[in-house]
Design goal:
Layout lengths: L4 E6 L9 H9 L14 H15 L3 H9 L7 H9 L3 E9 H10 L5 E9 L4 E6 L5 H11 L2 E7 L5 H6 L2 E5 L3 H6 L5 E2 L2 H12 L4
Helix pairs in contact: 1-3, 3-5
Length: 208
């Protein structure tokens, strides 16, 4: 019987790119936009709050696109991703939205990404709503991949990554907050790409 193939599932924001919402908050000076799933674990609650803030301040998709155009992946992210893709199949599982994440995905070499989308009024570029690809999509993606006989490794940094970390054959934290690591001590913690590489090599037999 052939050896089971491994697939790696990575979060996007906080793992490979900076947090887009935080960058928008810094550009606009709107503190409420700095909230992420590190702060509010319920994604629907977080997004409802975000859309309310956008409407209050008249911010549109174009504002996001202007911010994203100035952003780059985290230092070392593309090199790490290329190293990882040389070892195993890789899928990015993200709760971001395709409409403003794609320029950064391009800068990462266009890896496969499963994410959500936005409902936009393209006359005004007002963001009307968000469209989830499916609820709890990260966990369900891992379940589906395991059903295809992949061994799944998951890497993330936040509360909305927990379901995929728990469902995977092995979950790994990357630069998480102290709070979440204290709440979920079962997951190994890595603080940079070199530590993550070392862990993957020592614990999962990856090649240097």
């Amino acid at each position: 019987m052939s050896e089971q193939m491994t697939i790696a599932c990575l979060d996007l924001e906080g793992v490979l790119i900076p947090e887009i919402w935080i960058n928008l908050a810094e550009k606009t000076g709107i503190e409420a936009l700095k909230l992420t799933t590190r702060d509010i674990a319920d994604y629907d609650e977080l997004m409802v709050k975000r859309l309310e803030v956008l409407d209050q301040h008249g911010l549109t998709l174009k504002d996001f696109q202007e911010v994203v155009a100035t952003m780059d992946p985290l230092e070392g992210a593309r090199d790490f991703l290329e190293w990882l893709q040389d070892q195993v199949e890789v899928i990015i599982l993200s709760d971001t939205f395709r409409e403003f994440a794609m320029p950064l995905i391009s800068k990462l070499g266009n890896p496969t990404m499963f994410c959500h989308s936005l409902s936009v009024d393209y006359e005004t570029y007002r963001i009307k709503n968000y469209v989830l690809r499916q609820n709890d999509q990260k966990r369900k993606a891992v379940i589906a991949l395991k059903g295809l006989n992949f061994r799944v490794l998951s890497m993330g940094d936040s509360y909305n990554d927990l379901s995929m970390l728990e469902e995977a054959d092995a979950g790994i934290f990357f630069k998480p907050t102290k709070k979440i690591t204290e709440e979920f001590p079962q997951f190994p913690v890595t603080e940079n790409y070199e530590e993550l590489k070392s862990h993957l090599c020592s614990a999962h037999g990856f090649r240097r």
